[in-house]
Amino acid sequence: MPIILFASIFSRFNRVISLRLLAFLLGSLICVAAGHAEDILRIPYSSDIGTLDPDNGFEVAGLTTLDSIYEGLVKYEAGSTRIVGSLARSWEISGDGLTYTFHLVEGAKFHDGTALNADAVVTSFKRRRDGGFVQNYTLANLADIAASDRSTAVITLRHAQPSFLDGLASPWGPKIISPAAISEHAKGDFATGWLTEHAAGTGPFKLSEFKRGERYVLERNENYWGAKPYFSRVELPVIPDIGQQILKLKAGEIDGVPTNYPFAQLGSLPADLEITSAPSMAQFEAFVRPGSLLEDAEVRKAVLTAINPNLWASDAFGQYAQVSKSLFPNIMLDPAQPVRFPTDFDAAKSTIAKHGPVALNIGLYSANPSYGRIADLMIAQLSMIGVEATSHIMPPGAAYAMKGDPAAPDMLLIIASPDAAHPDSQAKAFFTKDAPLNLYGSALPEADAVIAEGASATDMSTRNTLYEKAGRMYFDAGHFIPLVDVDDVVVHRKDLKDLGLRPVFPRGSIDFSSVGR
Description:
By secondary structure, the protein is an alpha+beta fold. The chain has helices at residues 2-12, 19-34, 63-69, 118-130, 164-169, 179-185, 192-195, 242-250, 297-307, 313-317, 345-355, 369-383, 423-431, 445-455, 460-476; strands at 40-42, 74-76, 83-85, 88-93, 99-104, 142-149, 152-157, 205-211, 215-220, 233-237, 256-257, 273-288, 321-323, 358-364, 387-393, 411-415, 480-493.
């Protein structure tokens, strides 16, 4: 109706109103009609959310939602591994490293309207530690937590743990949940049944829609204690197929593809799309099966010559990857003596010829296309020295049943990303004998002892020297092989800015509270 009216006015007064003015009026009308859409951010999820209980889930899917709804005491600064305050405005650590005193921000409220106080912090920490949840290991060293006054929480550790603040700042670190919601919905399960599909945090967004397998919607928390987000609404449709995500992005139906955009296509994006990239801790590594042919030092040296990531990293990832310098991500630890791969192909060929037929089976941890690209390039290189190599995608969960299995792949490609920016969080997740993700069960006690020494070091230089030493020991023993650190790469509409990417977060973890237009 307004368009018809404008046309009528133009027809009657065409000597007064110019074509330029009509175009301006029509353009304004269109902008008004589309205005509310500009206030909505639409980012797809590649997989579904299992749970929104911050203590009971470890999945990457939904992590950006969790960290938009809930907050912890501290967090990592955007684009950095520096720890800054979140719900804690400041803190002190006792000289013996056992007591942490956190002073809370003023004016923060949970989404249910109850005020944040130190008792809420105590309730949330005890829930995680004592509730039998998946994430309770993060507080295994917590001896006690108490509220010394309304705005001060005091944590006591069983033993000094220099990585403790990093654990709190981790994207999977303890979040503060409304104690009123926990009490109201507790049914002998610490309210985890309710918190699986509902939420009550202090964060910049509230959960407004939970449609499992379809989409999730966040609404801006208008009573947020901190800086309010630009977007009033974040829509998160579940779109597993990357091809569909790309089509929807090009059609303007979503605002970005947060991860897995094919690296080969990044150089030919449409004019209205652009890339935001940042260093990450997504490190691709090869784990080696005990008892495989690679236990032979000569064969292993020949294989290392062929799979040298300097030969294929740019082919796989273009400018968006750096060859790993050690078993720890480059942004976490800059080693004094980086790992070096042998380069004599003639010697490698002679070694393989001397040992007779050498076949290598490479397992791929998941269907992530980057695994297949790396494997294809390494297989091509291995063929050049006479090694017949094959690869296959592991069935879901199969990698966790490989310990002691002689039929397991000789080598497993995996992303060995840590939970936090402290080297201990990676070493004790992947490398030490009892690490939960030491999937072959490799054991090197002398290296584990160096890791233990590094875990207690408070001086960063000393700490890094020890972790570098241990990493070199694992590498020299042929247990783990660092390959490449791959950047966080998000393809999005050109008008998006300030994505708030953080190195420790899984790739594609956009900070919905910082992004704007």
